[in-house]
Design brief:
Strand order of the largest sheet: 1-2
Number of strands: 2
Strand content: under 5%
Helix content: 55-70%
Oligomer: single chain
Structural class: mainly alpha
Amino acid sequence: MGKSWLLFLSLLAAPAVGYCQLAATRVAPAAPCGTKQYRDSLVAKYIERGAQRFSYSDPRWTQYCDSLIAICPTIAIAYQQKAVPLIKDGKYEAAFALENKAAQLDPQRWLAYRGFLKCIFTKDYEGAILDFQGATRLNPAGREMDHTYPFFEGLSHLELKKYALAEADFKRDMALQRGAAGKGELHFNTLFYVGVLALEQKKYGQAKAYLQQCLQQYSNHPDANYYLGLTYRQLGDEKLASQHLRTAGQALAKGYLLNEDNLYYANYPHQITAYEVQQAMR
């Protein structure tokens, strides 16, 4: 036990270059890599009680992931977790080499996640659509980052200006959220994006209705206030337009945002800035 523990400590202290090779040659698994119980124990040791004890910017995060890959190279989460610091730092080419491996090893878990990254981080909307379509075939009712797969397909088609496809996607998204009984509450950002879609299609009545529903759930939603202001302007009501644009600026100043995952690292489609609000109020 003493020698094994010293070896483990020495591996953690080793520089990143050549680390995988060192671990691969000196650390042998105690059970077959394909045994689920053993694989789960490795994830608990090297990810949950290992890498995740540190900030993703700490080199030990990557070292623990490398150790897990060296011991058992078929555990998908090791590659996904190793990609996290690269995604946060904007090193997308290196990150996606790892994300691709994770999705290949465990598409049930990581294919939709890769689609999310493509949609939100790299703006590869065509690629995101393909990933979410594949994920839907594996898990039709699946969710990623609190949203249905059709939600992200709708975002992607909206950004590609394929409005008919986006509309169909958001209808599927809403149907999944409402559930079989039809009583589930819709996410406020579904309502927001459907409102934006209607605005871009110049369906101003629909845009107004959806954006108002969004604000009923989240009154300080800066983006919904902004686009509702633009909608009222198109409808000829400059008083309400100015009111909502002003509310959008005040909400941004107070720190209100879309309330989505990873907003610190990437902008969501149609996410506004204070500059845009100022320009609209001139």
